[in-house]
Specification:
With about 300 residues, the chain is of the alpha/beta class. It folds into two domains: about 150 residues, Quinone Oxidoreductase, Chain A, domain 1, CATH 3.90.180.10; about 130 residues, NAD(P)-binding Rossmann-like Domain (Rossmann fold). The protein contains nine helices and 15 strands. Strands 3, 4, 5, 6, 7, 14 and 15 form a seven-stranded mixed beta sheet that branches. Strands 10-9-8-11-12-13 form a six-stranded parallel beta sheet, sandwiched between helices. A two-stranded antiparallel ribbon has the order 1-2. It is globular.
Length: about 300
């Protein structure tokens, strides 16, 4: 099969398209024919050596595809099922024509969209869902602010929060304001504006996927008893504790029940994945360069097989 492999850490140039054997599956796994793979920041961070892991490895941890084969202990899926997931990031990823995945990580893909669209959902969608509802405990009527709202996680978070009945605030460049209001944001703030944090009040929940001074600025407007959920390193812990604000750092879990809930919203037309560009597998380096530039609206997706 064709796959993108990394034999040394470095820039996008280390991503090599190679011919390697199709993976063998264990009794509790399924072999999935990958139709499309989403591209996420974790992909380029691991490519650059952001975490110790054996070389070579295949990046990519978003997929939509069709089951080709199941292990002896797999009874809830069968050959031909269309599935999607965020597989275990400790294993080889989805920049490949086939991938071995634990059946316990799989969910049926949304029936109303194609594989390219479905592949944009798992990691970003799960992250947004778990930030808002598991860690953030968001309820209808609350006020939530989503940083970097035009990105992969942000575009889902805006739509999920609006569906829940929250008042949705978002930070983004001015060029993305109308777009985010179309997605459901009630108010959009240009994060380039000096002192923007002083114009915001009484926020119950903040979602942070960018780090830096966004957490410190957020402390200005989060109410005591509120929550800031970050996908990055928590900072200024003492200041948050002093104000009575919970600061939570989260790691996304591949939960099929969450993927099923998201798929239902997609199929009902309540949530739509936002895709900036679709590229062939061979252009994985270009895709990662785009994501690394931090100005992608929604997601980049690699098409691996034609549907």
């Amino acid at each position: 099969m064709k796959a993108i492999e990394i034999h040394s850490f470095g820039g996008p140039e280390v991503l090599q398209l190679e011919e390697i054997p199709v993976p063998q599956i264990a009794a509790d796994e399924a072999l999935v024919r990958v139709y499309a793979s989403g591209v996420n920041p974790v992909d380029y961070k691991l490519r650059a050596g952001g975490a110790e892991r054996p070389l070579p490895f295949i990046p990519g941890w978003d997929l939509s595809g069709v089951i080709e084969e199941t292990g002896a202990d797999v009874h809830n899926f069968k050959k031909g099922d269309a599935v999607y997931t965020r597989p275990d990031v400790k294993r080889d990823g989805t920049y490949a024509e086939y991938v071995a995945v634990k059946a316990s990580e799989l969910a049926y893909k949304p029936a109303s969209v194609d594989h390219v669209t479905a592949a944009a959902i798992p990691l970003a969608g799960l992250t947004a869902w778990q930030c808002l509802f598991e860690h953030g405990q968001l309820e209808a009527g609350q006020k939530v602010l989503i940083h970097a709202a035009s990105g992969g996680v942000g575009t889902f978070a805006v739509q999920f929060a609006k569906w829940k009945g929250a008042y949705v605030m978002a930070t983004a460049s001015e060029s993305n304001h109308d777009f985010l209001k179309q997605l459901g944001a009630d108010e959009v703030i240009d994060y380039h504006t000096p002192g923007y944090e002083n114009t915001i009040t009484s926020v119950n929940l903040v979602i942070d996927t960018i780090g830096g001074d966004s957490q410190k600025r957020s402390l200005t407007f989060i109410m005591p008893g509120g929550i800031l959920v970050t996908t990055l390193k928590p900072e200024n812990k003492d200041a948050f504790e002093e104000k009575g604000v919970r600061l939570i750092s989260m790691y996304t879990q591949a939960r099929p029940e969450d993927l099923n809930a998201i798929a239902k919203l997609v199929d009902e037309g309540i949530v739509r994945p936002v895709i900036a560009k679709v590229l062939p597998l061979a252009q994985a380096a270009k895709a990662q360069e785009m994501v690394e530039g931090h100005h992608v609206r929604g997601k980049i997706v690699l098409k691996v097989h034609e549907e």
